[in-house]
Amino acid sequence: MNLSFFDQFSSPSLLGIPLILVATLLPALLLPSPNNRWITGRLSVLQLWLINLITKQLMIPLDKKGHKWALILTSLMLFILLTNLLGLLPYTFTPTTQLSMNLALAFPIWLATLLTGLRNQPSVSLGHLLPEGTPTPLIPALILIETTSLLIRPLALGVRLTANLTAGHLLIQLISTATTVLFSTMPAISFLTLIILFLLTILEVAVAMIQAYVFVLLLSLYLQENI
User: Fold this and answer.
1) Residue range 110-167, pLDDT digits in tens
2) Lesser CB count within 10 Å: N end or C end of the chain?
3) Contact present, 151 and 111 (Cβ < 8 Å)
4) Rg (CA), the chain
């Protein structure tokens, strides 16, 4: 049976049951559960330090009104980060390479930030659709353009995350396939591609972390506009 390069992005199933739910629940199993050694364990201390660092970075663009969103934003970033990193392991499935999955993560929070702005400060939120000092003939066109740019924000978030992870996984598979094929005929070239594969894997780890941060950071910036 011949497999294409894109088969790795299809959701696996067992006895006809999709396993994407298992893949999305696995990152939560890596977090510590409360017990008497919550602070004493080195791994728990490291995880708490990382969570504290992430929370501080995400709260920088927000004022005090937005700090109540810290739990949601930090949890979302940890989920995306762990999912992206687990997807780099061999024989694993990455749910965040699915556009539907990323849209399901982006759309509800984006909509919540938008509704928050419309409820708390409707005039300011609607004022973003029309820049100050706009000539009268351009008002209808600018309102249409700004409304379109506002509505495609969750789509842009989902497409950005999907495209970056999909491209990285395809590059890793292409180079690993070339390394295997060239090993028997041209060992020197195969060793060179193996080095490139190692460097690319390090790059993909960085991309997985950066994309998770950018995804949640943009959501926090959208939130700041509406509070």
Assistant:
1) 999 989 888 888 777 777 777 777 777 877 888 888 888 888 999 999 999 999 998 8
2) N
3) no
4) 22
